[in-house]
């Protein structure tokens, strides 16, 4: 009998012990989720994420073949990380199902910020002054994850822009609001005090525009400031909502 080819044997061993591509992709996504919330999450394995207080939450609901609509209404944590959020200005309008960030696992955000229907999210709200030199309105936002401080930093950076750009950012059309998203019925990031809407005069929202093709008037200079502080923009969604920003550092 011939001795086995050592290179072939090594290749066989590597193939048998390497995690599948899907497993390593899922693991990289969960790494990003854990890194994005260092005060709250302590780690993950293939099946669970672990919270710093010892709670564990399943990463999957065992339904990998869900439709887009099912993921909007019943997102697992892996669904939440499914769609990549594009870096930088958009080279072209998003496709109809390019909605990075709209899959949200409600149990995850309820635990993180509190369920407003039980009065929990309200306990974390603080008041910030938005654009004190240009507008100065008071907004209620959550202090969880340092979001109030991050929005103060966003406000300071926007104040440094020329007036022709600043005008898109005030008056704010709202922050905390214990409500659901119109088309999905799931809790909005506004229900956690982790989202802000800018000047409604310059905003475009797919539902108001009778599902018209993508349209945006918000300058990227403003978007870039929010993204730098951990907020994603609703203007990068096929179901566009261009005045909307929410704190989702796991996607940035
Ligand atoms: Zn909004």
Please describe what this structure looks like.
The protein is α+β, with helices and mostly antiparallel strands and 252 residues long. The protein has 8 helices and 8 strands. The protein has helices at 6-17, 21-36, 68-73, 77-80, 106-113, 147-159, 163-166, 220-228, and strands at residues 41-44, 48-51, 56-58, 125-130, 137-142, 195-197, 231-233, 244-247. The termini are far apart. It has a 3-stranded antiparallel β-sheet, with helices on one face. A 3-stranded antiparallel β-sheet has the order 6-8-7. The model has no long low-confidence stretch (mean pLDDT 92). It has a domain at 115-251: Muramoyl-pentapeptide Carboxypeptidase, domain 2.
How does the helix and strand content classify structurally?
A: alpha+beta
User: Whole-Å distance between the termini?
Assistant: 56 Å
Q: Any idea of the CATH topology of the domain at 115-251?
A: Muramoyl-pentapeptide Carboxypeptidase, domain 2
Order of helices and strands: HHEEEHHHEEHHEHEE
* Total DSSP E strands: 8
Query: Which percent range fits the helix content?
Result: 25-40%
Q: Any low-confidence stretches, pLDDT <50, length ≥5? A: none
Number of helices, counting only DSSP H or I runs of 4 residues or more:
8
Strands side by side in the biggest sheet:
1-2-3
Small ligands present: zinc ion
Q: What would CATH call the architecture of the domain at 115-251?
A: 2-Layer Sandwich
Q: How would the global form be characterised?
A: globular
Q: Round the mean pLDDT to the nearest integer and report it.
A: 92
Strand portion, in percent?
5-15%
């Amino acid at each position: 009998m011939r001795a086995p080819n050592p290179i072939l044997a090594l290749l066989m061993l590597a193939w048998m012990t390497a995690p599948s591509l899907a497993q390593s992709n899922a693991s990289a996504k969960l790494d990003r989720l854990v890194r994005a919330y260092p005060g709250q999450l302590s780690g993950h394995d293939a099946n669970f994420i672990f919270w710093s207080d010892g709670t564990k939450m399943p990463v999957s609901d065992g339904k990998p073949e869900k439709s887009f609509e099912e993921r909007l209404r019943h997102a697992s944590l892996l669904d939440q990380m499914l769609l990549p959020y594009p870096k930088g200005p958009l080279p072209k309008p998003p496709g109809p199902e390019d909605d990075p960030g709209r899959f949200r696992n409600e149990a995850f955000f309820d635990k993180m910020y509190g369920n407003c229907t039980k009065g929990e999210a309200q306990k974390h709200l603080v008041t910030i002054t938005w654009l004190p030199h240009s507008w100065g309105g008071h907004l209620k936002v959550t202090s969880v994850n340092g979001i109030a401080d991050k929005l103060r930093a966003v406000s300071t950076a926007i104040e440094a822009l020329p007036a022709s750009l600043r005008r898109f950012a005030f008056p704010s059309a709202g922050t905390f609001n214990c409500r659901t998203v119109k088309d999905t019925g799931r809790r909005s990031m506004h229900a956690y005090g982790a989202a802000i809407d800018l000047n409604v005069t310059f905003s475009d929202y797919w539902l108001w525009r009778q599902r018209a093709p993508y349209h945006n008037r918000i300058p990227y200079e403003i978007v870039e400031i929010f993204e730098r502080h951990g907020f994603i923009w609703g203007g990068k969604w096929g179901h566009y909502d261009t005045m909307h920003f929410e704190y989702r550092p796991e996607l940035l």
